[in-house]
Here is the input.
Amino acid sequence: MMAGLTLSECGERKTMVSDATVGQLGLLALMREDIACVFGRDPAARHWFEILLTYPGVQAIVWHRLAHRCWRRGWRFVGRLLAYLSRLLTNVDIHPGACIGRRFFIDHGAGVVIGETAEIGEDVTLYHGVTLGGTTWNKGKRHPTLGDGVVVGAGAKILGAITVGAGARIGANSVVVKDVPPERTAVGIPARLTGGKRAAAGETTAGIDLDHHLIPDPVGKAIACLVARIDSLEAELRQLRGTSAAATESCGACAAGELCCNEHRNQEYEASVLRRSGT
Here is the structure.
């Protein structure tokens, strides 16, 4: 369930509501939470005054809180103008219609784009270069929904009216075009689920897991499986031909050197054996 958003915050979008909602909190209380959450997610943070003045991601969410209030009250031009000024100052583009929950943090805050109908839960962390974009020019819901505690790695693109479940992680530079279940990890282009649900042992006391550098590589794993299969097939082929696996002669197929996977070297050796046998 995605908490922290009300119908008044998100217009006609029917978002799940928790006991403590964004709409029930004052603007200053929201901003204090946005600043305070930085200490738990950025070891470089030292003082709230420094965060407010030097963190573009924090400045962007402060501007957005103001712009979003104007947007909800029907002051659309004022909301868009505030969002435009925020983009000039922070290099973060957040549409004033986007619904963002409590304790939202954009680390580094460069090149982030959040579309009009995007919905973001509580305790969500985005890194630089993230896009929450749409895939249609039609009006209505066209941007993604992020559940509570989601972490999105640098450069990731989440496109379309899809849902990323609570506690999910999106790997850096991934392109997500399908729903991601809660507590799962998605990586790659297009993004694929990898592994099972994340273990709670890796979480911090705040319940937010920032170990996105430990995300497995499903493409690398698939390539490793293919290489192992090829090795097995080559071993069977050598057994059928009655040749040895040792390749003592140098390979002249390319200049790969130590990077050679021995495939051409084995082929050269087998060819030399056939030449010696006169076949």
